[in-house]
Amino acid sequence: MPISNEKAASRPFLEVLYEDEYFPDHVLDKGRAVLVALCERIEAERPADLAALYALTQAATEEFNALEAEFEAAGSEIETVAREEMGGDFWFIAQAYGFDDADVEELIATREW
Fold it and tell me: Does 58 fall in a domain?
């Protein structure tokens, strides 16, 4: 299902990481797919409140956790720059869907990175 939210649909997720050769594109593609799927899920489920949104974003965060081994296998890791970019994209998604009072730390509370 394509993303209908124009802000989210036009967002170049993980853009800064794609510009850095340290981060392998094939793993970033999987991370971008997680973020796109999160947008699709928000549109399909229409979370009514922050608790419902956090359940969705934290599940997506766990998918990023699973990518850590792939980053490492490619000679990379989820380090400071990556954490900031990923967290920023989660926050952007919350804002794009009208959750202006979302807490970025709570959005990604299940992170292991």
Answer: yes
